[in-house]
Design goal:
Length: 338
């Protein structure tokens, strides 16, 4: 594109030239079309259920243009590395030839301006945990001693144990509380969304946890979803962040509800000047997803209900009362033999 512009500038008469006379958009549109149409990294979204959707969007791949090939990648590339901690999930990866080459982003990880993954830590000063949260890249993390999220804390917010289990330069060590500089923000920081939905994950064998995390994504939505009796507390966040539920844009009172539409009269203090003061939500009814499963939103509010901003007002596929509900609770009866 740059070369073409320079050529045309050299040829053309300088008076009343317009930008569209110089720039040819064909190479740009061809590159964009090639990426979205035929690139390995532009994929058809896995829409079986809300979890498979959000997991697909949080996937990290070492394959594709400019990356590795399955045949060339050795054991070192695929293996779990200390710098994965809080950035890339050590559990969720496919079984088979792609193992370790396709990974999932950890729960609280984010990309920084240079494209490196960062994970949050709470600052610790003189063995007292502060409210300050810093995002550290793998390189920065190596300079600090970082305690685990389950370290014992007294009422004043100080580390109370004589020795604290911590990490320094990828090694797990025991240190005195005064030497600790940072602390994990949460116990689920290490794992991905799918792995963090497994209750009592720490009691599972890593291979079975991997299979469980991968197989939850294949659950077909139920006709009557049912919230899990035993959960991990992240189900509501997954349902909301996957975009399958409908959230109230403003607080207010529900004026009208039917199967396909919810009307909310916005609170006076939240209504902006010049706006109608009424929010209308049209729900998605019986739509086919990419995987031919059923996407259908159902209102969970009634006329006269008061809702706050960001409250869930309609369930989507595989959600129940705003929580992710992939399966059914099983009632098991035990009978004594004798």
């Amino acid at each position: 594109v740059e070369r073409a512009v320079k050529e045309r500038l050299g040829q053309a008469e300088a008076d009343n030239l317009m930008p569209h006379d110089l720039i040819n958009s064909k190479p740009i549109s061809a590159a964009i079309r090639e990426f979205f149409g035929s690139s390995q990294l532009s994929q058809f979204m896995d829409q079986t259920n809300p979890l498979s959707e959000i997991t697909h969007k949080r996937r990290i791949s070492a394959l594709g243009p400019g990356g590795l090939t399955r045949e060339r990648a050795g054991f070192e590339v695929r293996d779990v590395h200390p710098t994965h901690y809080g950035r890339v999930c050590p559990i969720e990866t496919p079984e088979g030839p792609n193992i370790g080459l396709i990974n999932s982003l950890a729960l609280y990880a984010r990309l920084n301006e240079y494209g490196f993954l960062e994970t949050p830590y709470r600052k610790v000063v003189d063995s007292k945990i502060t409210e300050q949260v810093d995002f550290l890249s793998a390189i920065e993390e190596g300079r600090y001693i970082i305690a685990q999220a389950n370290a014992t804390i007294d009422k004043s917010g100080k580390l109370s144990d004589e020795l604290v289990s911590a990490r320094e330069a990828g090694e797990t060590i025991l240190v005195s509380p005064e030497r600790v500089q940072y602390m994990d923000v949460a116990t689920g920081q290490v794992v991905s969304v799918a792995a963090s939905l497994t209750p009592f994950l720490e009691h599972d064998d890593a291979n079975r946890a991997l299979m469980g995390a991968n197989m939850q994504r294949q659950a077909v939505p139920c006709l009557r979803p049912e919230t899990a009796l035993v959960g991990t507390g992240i189900e509501r966040t997954v349902a909301i962040d996957s975009g399958t539920t409908v959230q109230a844009l403003h607080g207010g009172i529900v004026d009208y509800v039917d199967a396909g539409r919810v009307v909310i009269r916005v609170n006076d203090e939240e209504a902006l000047a010049g706006e109608v003061g009424v929010d209308i939500y049209n729900l998605i009814k019986y739509t086919r997803s990419n995987q031919n499963t059923n996407i259908n939103q159902r209102p969970i509010v009634e006329v006269g209900d008061r809702v706050a901003k960001l409250d869930v007002i309609a369930d989507g596929a595989s959600t129940d009362l705003g929580e992710l509900a992939l399966g059914q609770n099983m009632l098991v009866a035990f009978m004594p033999w004798n």
